[in-house]
Amino acid sequence: MKKKDGRIGSAFEDCLKKQGTLEETNAAAVKRVLAWQLEQAMEKQQLSKRAMAAAMNTSRSQLDRILDPNNDHIRLDTMTAAAHVLGLSLRIELVR
Fold this sequence. Notes:
- By secondary structure, the chain is mostly helical.
- It contains 5 helices and 2 strands; from the N terminus they run E-E-H-H-H-H-H.
- A hairpin with a 2-residue loop joins strand 1 and strand 2.
- The protein starts with a strand and ends in an 11-residue tail after the last helix.
């Protein structure tokens, strides 16, 4: 193995690319971070799940799906609504 930039071997992302799972892995990581950020904001504002769901005009079970770090099938408008209730905004950007 060649040493490059102080590392031996290839980057983890390169491995995921070869396996064809880079996009899926990135999407799962983003969802986990968003769920964690929402939970942290709710905790900071002392907002219960029941109150959060009511403010979003949704059910508690739907909120549980939003906060589930393993559920990456959440619509952007749903995440935007959750952020809005907490006084936050959702920012999405495309990067290279």
